[in-house]
Write a sequence for this structure.
């Protein structure tokens, strides 16, 4: 009964899903979305949500099939349907054999025995060594000293800017000397609200690829180290968010309504926003956009006044269904996907940076017209994306409250304290 109650909670939370960082649903589609279950003993069903990664992953899966004789069918399910589909599949016994897992949901899925326990298989593997992966990414998919997914990738956040707009305004391009104050000053100069031009766009829902980075640079935090209490009501966090509101939201950003009607990517790719913060998962989509390719480039994030330059990072995991009838073949695929060779290929072909340490240096060459080294430079001071078992619930709530702050319905201090109170309640229930 406990499991059913928790699963019901998952459904409720999932149905409220919005686009989320680290893969989001950019470029995704619903091809074969209604065919999520296992495909047979010598074939595997695989589910992902990012259509941008599909061509590269197909190539990798084809290599796997040639090596093993096991066929792989990949389905791309939009982010806003993906988790509902997985939960329904878990209850009905029709989960895909292999699928992506995200830190927002991993704790719930692991605690409810929905994922195949890989611990013993990893221990016995000659290919997989847990020490080869970024520890924080591996930790996203561990519970009670057991491992439930093979790390797939990791992502950092960087600053994208419109060179043409900077040149027209006579402003020097962002570089590693920029502070958040420098950033705000440039954004203000690049803003002409009468002509629908804005220095920066970042809606209230953008946390990993938005204000989280600035909060940590300014000494605040979202979650304490042992995940027992919220940091939203810490004085440093409140001060940081007051700065964000006073210097960015009210000065150089479009309205919440405008950002709701036009994503930040649309605003940036149409020359209406001069700067945006974006994760490395969007590089392929940006590289294929003619306007961005001709007018934009990438720089490291601004730093705090104390010289810190933090990035919130995250990473996906490859997981398998706990009750898959193809568990052994599913493990063969997971083992293959986690190998150094395949993780290196993933990076070199531009799919994403890889979770296997030391394999992503050549990722910067996948879009040579952009300074992708900025993303790798951000690895010098990374903070794992805050998560608990109830991440989805308290993140959704915090975003709703932040909308009220962005629109001046409540003060930013009131918003921060309200989020902290709710978040602490949800943590206490875990």
């Amino acid at each position: 009964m406990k499991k059913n109650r928790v699963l019901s909670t998952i459904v409720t939370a999932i149905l409220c899903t919005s686009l989320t960082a680290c893969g989001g649903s950019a470029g995704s589609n619903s091809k074969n979305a209604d065919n999520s279950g296992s495909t047979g003993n010598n074939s595997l069903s695989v589910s992902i949500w990012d259509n941008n990664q599909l061509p590269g992953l197909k190539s990798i899966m084809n290599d796997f099939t040639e090596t093993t004789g096991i066929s792989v069918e990949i389905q791309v399910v939009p982010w806003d349907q993906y988790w509902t589909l997985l939960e329904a599949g878990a209850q009905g016994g029709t989960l895909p054999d292999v699928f992506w897992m995200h830190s927002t949901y991993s704790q719930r899925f692991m605690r409810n025995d929905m994922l195949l326990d890989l611990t013993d298989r990893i221990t016995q593997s000659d290919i997989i060594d847990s020490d080869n992966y970024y520890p924080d990414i591996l930790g996203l998919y561990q519970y009670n000293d057991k491992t439930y997914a093979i790390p797939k990738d990791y992502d950092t956040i960087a600053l994208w800017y419109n060179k043409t707009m900077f040149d027209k305004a006579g402003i020097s391009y962002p570089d590693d000397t920029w502070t958040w104050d420098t950033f705000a000053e440039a954004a203000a100069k690049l803003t002409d609200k009468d002509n629908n031009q804005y220095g920066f766009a970042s809606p209230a829902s953008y946390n990993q690829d938005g204000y989280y980075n600035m909060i940590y640079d300014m000494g605040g935090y979202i979650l304490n180290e042992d995940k027992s209490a919220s940091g939203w009501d810490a004085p440093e966090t409140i001060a940081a968010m007051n700065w964000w509101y006073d210097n960015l939201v009210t000065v150089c950003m479009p309205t919440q309504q405008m950002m709701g009607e036009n994503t930040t990517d649309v605003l940036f790719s149409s020359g209406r926003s001069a700067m945006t913060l974006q994760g490395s998962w969007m590089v392929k989509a940006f590289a294929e956009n003619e306007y961005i390719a001709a007018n934009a480039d990438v720089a490291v994030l601004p730093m705090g006044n104390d010289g810190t330059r933090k990035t919130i990072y995250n990473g996906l995991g490859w997981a398998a269904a706990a009750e898959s009838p193809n568990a052994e073949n599913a493990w063969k695929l997971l083992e293959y996907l986690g190998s150094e060779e395949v993780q290196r290929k993933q990076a070199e072909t531009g799919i994403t940076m890889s979770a296997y340490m030391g394999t992503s240096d050549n990722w910067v060459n996948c879009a040579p017209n952009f300074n992708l080294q900025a993303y790798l430079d951000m690895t010098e001071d990374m903070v794992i994306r805050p998560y608990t078992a109830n991440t989805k619930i308290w993140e959704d709530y915090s975003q709703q409250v932040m909308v009220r702050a962005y629109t001046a319905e409540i003060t930013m201090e009131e918003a921060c304290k309200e989020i902290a109170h709710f978040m602490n309640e949800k943590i206490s229930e875990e």
